[in-house]
Structures are given as C-alpha cells and as structure tokens.
Amino acid sequence: MAVLTLEQAAVPLRQAYREGRLIPFLGAGFSAPLQLPMWKELVGWMGEALGFEPALFELHGLPPQLAGFFARERAGGLDSFIAEMRTRFHARAVDERRKGSCQHKALARRHFPTIYTTNFEHHIEEALRDAGKQAVALSTFDDFARCPAQGACHVIKFHGDLNRPETVVLTEAQYFSRLRLEAAPDQRLRADLLSNSFLFLGYSFGDVDIRYIWYRMEQMRIEGSSPGAQRAPNRRGYWATFGAGLVQPALLEAWHVDVIELDPNDKTQSVVALLDALDG
C-alpha cells in the first residue's frame, strides 16, 4: 500500500515526465475553479424541462438514469439539452474564469503530448491554446485517423465532446456502452498503457466510472504483457486526492495505483504545486 506525499511522488512523476511517459487523466474536479454546473444542476434542468420540481425529479433515480428518462420523454432526445450544456459550459464568463485559473495555467505550462479527460467541455484544450500551444480534441474514430502525429497535444475526450453531441455520454445505457472500452479512445488507451504512467486528477473515491477504468487498465496491462515479463516500475498509476484514509489505498494497490495525498486546506494550490513539481 503506497500513500505518497507530494515530495515523495515528485520523484517518480518527474522521471516519467522527463522521459515523456507521463499522461494526465483529468476529471470534473480539475475544472472546479470554472464553477461549471455539476450533475445536480444538470438534473435540475432536465426535471424543469419535463415539468418536474428539480428536487423531486432527482429522487427518482441516479443522474444517468434520469438522463435516460429525459432522452426518452423529450422530443429530439438529448440534442437540445447538450446544446444548452455547450452554451453554458462554453460561456464567455467561463472562458474568463479559465484564463484566470491557476490549475489550467499550471497544466498549460507543462509539455504533455497526450491528455485524457472525462470532461465534456473544451477548457483543457483551450487552456493550452491560451498559452500559445497547439491542441487537438479527439473523440471519434475519424478524429484519431486524421489527427496530427506530432506537434499538437492530443486531448482525448473519453466521455465525449460537447462540440460533437453524438459522442457525449450522459445516460445509463451510454455509460454501460462506454464501459465495454472498445471505442477509438480505448484503442489509443491500450497503446498508451504499454509505455506510460497516468496521473489522475479531479476524481473521487466514489467515482464508479474511473474505478472501472483503473480496473480495466490493469487488465489491459496484464493482457499486453508477455508471459513471465517483469512489470516496469514506471508503469504504476498515480491518483491525487485530499484525504486518502486506509481502505482505498489498499484496494488501489491491487491495480498498481499509488495515492498522492495533497493538502485539503488549499486544493487549488496543491494541484498547482503537484504540476509545477514536474519541472523541479
């Protein structure tokens, strides 16, 4: 069981980063400084559109289930809802918050050839562009087929892209389909697992989707290793959190994920310090 301080984690992370073998995998928590709507607010929008009181609508199921009900009951399915999400998530005020976000600036100061994210919005790739860097968002097979091999950071949108409504994963059925891990982003993930370490930022212990991804990543590593091969030490994953406890690190050890415990008193600066430590 490994729970690392920032200082302890910086050593292997810095080595992987210098070798070009460190890939961030970013969740909704990374975009917290942007004050984007969370699931509770999204469900409220759905409920109101269907004539429910938001607080009552959310009692009828988990958010992906309610999204599935909305898609079934609403004429046009989720298209208009995703269009509304795009309008709000990409609003000018949110763009301004991104430009002032210490976390996004710290990410953009680094040189990552690849970034994975389960976020739908464009703010990761836009943060790179704010810093004068090239970035290309990838979510479909055609995106991967056409994307430049070098020069631009590949931002892989694991749960879809608001600019590609057909790729966005919101409903329970869509999540189940994604959990098969057979789409174009998953094929890229298999290839990246062979020679890279992943740094997970912005996820909670209770995020079932990312836990399944951790589990499947470990299975992919096992399936991709030759019989009797020794696991390279820099193939471990790293997950940053603000309170590790005892149980979760022990469970994650089975999936070769080390836990990095950051300062809960200043979460933003803790994430910035972690990213800046890569250049130390």
Structure description:
- This protein is 48% helix and 12% strand.
- With 280 residues, the protein is α/β, with parallel strands linked by helices.
- Helix 9 (141-146) links the parallel strand 4 (135-138) and strand 5.
- Helix 2 (39-49) packs parallel to helix 4 and helix 7 packs parallel to helix 14.
- It is globular and about 55 Å long.
- It starts with a strand and ends with a helix.
Helix count equals 14
**Describe the biggest sheet?**
8 strands, parallel
- Classify the secondary structure makeup into a structural class: alpha/beta
- Give the radius of gyration: 19 Å
Largest sheet: spatial strand order:
1-8-7-6-2-3-5-4
Classify the helix fraction into a percent range.
40-55%
- What is the terminal separation in angstroms? 26 Å
In a nutshell, what does this entry contain?
The chain has 14 helices and eight strands.
SSE order and pairing:
Layout: E1 3-4, H1 6-18, E2 22-26, H2 39-49, H3 54-57, H4 63-73, H5 79-89, H6 92-100, H7 102-109, E3 114-117, H8 123-130, E4 135-138, H9 141-146, E5 153-157, H10 172-178, H11 184-193, E6 197-201, H12 208-224, E7 237-241, H13 247-253, E8 257-261, H14 267-277
Parallel strand pairs: 1-8, 2-3, 2-6, 3-5, 4-5, 6-7, 7-8
Helix pairs in contact: 2-4, 7-8, 7-14
